[in-house]
Structure formats: C-alpha cells, structure tokens
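May I ask for a sample protein chain and its fold as tokens?
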Amino acid sequence: MDQPLNSGSSDPLASAPLNGAGEGVGERVCRSQAPARGLEGWSSRKDRRKVGYRIGAVFGAVFLVVFSWGDDGQVLAKGPANPGHEALECADCHDPAEGTVRQQVQAAVAFGLGLRETPPAVGRLPVSNRVCMDCHERKADLHPTHEFTEPKYFEERKEIAADQCITCHKEHSGRHVANTGQFCSTCHSDLGAIDKPIQPTHPELVAGERWDTCMRCHDYHGNHVREAPRTLGEAFDGRTVLRHLDSGAPLYGEKREPASGERTR
C-alpha cells in the first residue's frame, strides 16, 4: 500500500488535519506566532480610541464611587480647613466644572493621550482669586493681588506668585498663612530712599537682611486699625507673628472695614 507523501516528514505540523475552514493547524500556529504590530499599529486612531475607552471606564468607575460617597469633601479634601473656614461646605468655594462626569472623563482621557492641549476641570473648578475676593475683598488693601499682575513685577512673580491668593493662603493646609512671612525681600530689597524716624532704620534692617522683622511692625494687607511702632522693641515678637500666621489669632487690632463676607455667584 502506498504511503502518504508526508508520512516520512519529521514536521508534525505538515501532517496536521485541516479545520472546517480549510486552514491547517500549522497555519493557525504560524498566525498566532506572528510578530505583534509595532508603533505604527499603536499610533492608529482605532487603537488610541480603544485604550481611551478602557481608561475612561476606569476613571468613570472611580468617579461613580467618589460621587456616590455622600459628601464628596470627605474623600476629595486634601487636608483640614484653614482657620475661619471650618463651617464652609465644598460648594461654597468649589464651583461645579462644566459638562457631565462622562464628558469630563472623556476630556481627561483625551488630554492624557495628547489629543487635547489643556487639562480639563474634573468634578469642580479650581479656586480662583475671584472666589477669595467674593468674601475677603477690601478697598484699602495695601497689597492687592491685581497689583502684581503688572508687567513691572514680571521677574518678581517668578520668585513668588504674589498675584495669587493661594500662594500664601493655601487652603486645606490647616494654617491661616502657609508662609513664614519672609517674602518681603522680593520687592522691598531697596529701601534706601525710605528714611522714617524708626530705630533701627529701614536701610539698616535691609542691610542686615532682617526680613523676619517686617511683619512684626507691618500688617501685610493693612486690614487693621494700628499705628506702626517707632522702635523694634515696641513691635511684636517673632513667636507671636508666627502664631498669628499659623492660627489666625487676632494680632494687629480691630478690622478697618468689614469684607464682603459673601460669595456672589
């Protein structure tokens, strides 16, 4: 009896039977061992879309858990409220972001894949100066944030962003001022022309780099009715100033005028 032509072959795949579609096992194995697509495959719009949908599904699940928790502040708050803000709700400062949660997640995925230039706000909008000013704006502010947006302060803004309230009053830090107060040198390193009758003089304090003494005499925003002392001995001590920056305990006296105290939406 004649033997099959492939009976003497040492390759087991050569004698493998065909499947119903006329495809041999060998062909299936070779196809399964074909090299994976390269970067050009990944860069296709279809592949990016698939990955985006998967990432979006994960983000969506996370947000569903977070926003169904009840008060989302319990989960999303980055730390304790600052002194004076303990009774505030999240929505008092954080306005809702535009769009639905699904749209926000899709925009976030698009940004992550490089299909969008700017990151979207997800959940709630970031707090801006306007939000702070709705409650804390006063007409006689000695250092209003808008003053530091002027071009002449371009270099100074690189060192300390004094045009942003949250640079010093960083929320969820548990402190009244999240700064030691020794930032005055950024703008006031040249006080040679100021020669008020105080002891020591301003030029002497600057020459000695005594920037820790500024807030011992001066109220940064000028919100309080207080006459600056004539001598450093009459000024507050450093520990008292630091305690004020930390807890917001009254230091500079009675407020000059009430702030707006209410957000206007």
Notes: Confidence is low (pLDDT under 50) at residues 1-37. The chain has twelve helices and no strands. The two ends are 96 Å apart (CA to CA).
